[in-house]
Design a protein that fits this description.
23% of the residues lie in helices and 25% in strands. It contains four helices and seven strands. A four-stranded mixed sheet has the order 2-6-5-4.
Length: 166
């Protein structure tokens, strides 16, 4: 299934925001391997990205808080997927349980569903839960080897208005 037109183009870009201490190993999938993720269980190396930088920031902020983004060093990483046809797109209607696309706890069924798709396709675009009209990209680094490339990394600086004084 092709990407929605607003995500198309010659290259597909994806964005990650992570603590700077992990920036060099951005594509290791270590965090998901240790803790699991929305679409993967513990023990599977998956790299989670957003398909725009603002969603990448929100995805981290919803878990860690704007205070952490304001006070700890983070790095914004972006990569490209040169061949969009390698991305399997999961539309909201493809998800068996609509609650999986709402904020809340992740179920075992959701992780099994995502894990199966990741194993089958290697690179998968999922609707974002934190930003309804945004998309996330997840991939198994070993299965997607050669399909993605680092574009650049830069220090991230949070706009102070997102963490104002009390």
């Amino acid at each position: 299934m092709p990407l929605p037109p607003y995500l198309g183009g010659p290259d597909v870009l994806a964005w990650r925001l992570e603590r700077t201490v992990y920036a060099e190993t951005w594509d290791s999938g270590e965090g998901a391997y240790r803790c699991g993720g929305r679409w993967s269980s513990v023990g599977l190396r998956v790299v989670y990205c957003a398909m725009d930088p603002a969603t990448a920031i929100l995805e981290v902020a919803v878990h860690r808080g704007f205070d952490v983004l304001d006070t700890e060093r983070h790095t914004l990483t972006w990569l490209k997927i040169a061949d969009p046809s390698q991305i399997h797109v999961v539309n909201p209607s493809d998800v068996p349980n609509p609650n999986w696309l709402r904020p809340g706890y992740v179920s075992q069924g959701q992780r099994q569903f995502g894990r199966a798709l990741l194993h089958r396709h290697g690179i998968v675009a999922f609707p974002s839960v934190v930003s309804t009209h945004s998309w996330n990209l997840a991939f198994i680094p070993s299965a997607a080897a050669g399909a993605y490339a680092l574009v650049d990394q830069e220090p991230f600086a949070l706009d102070g208005r997102l963490h104002p004084p009390v």
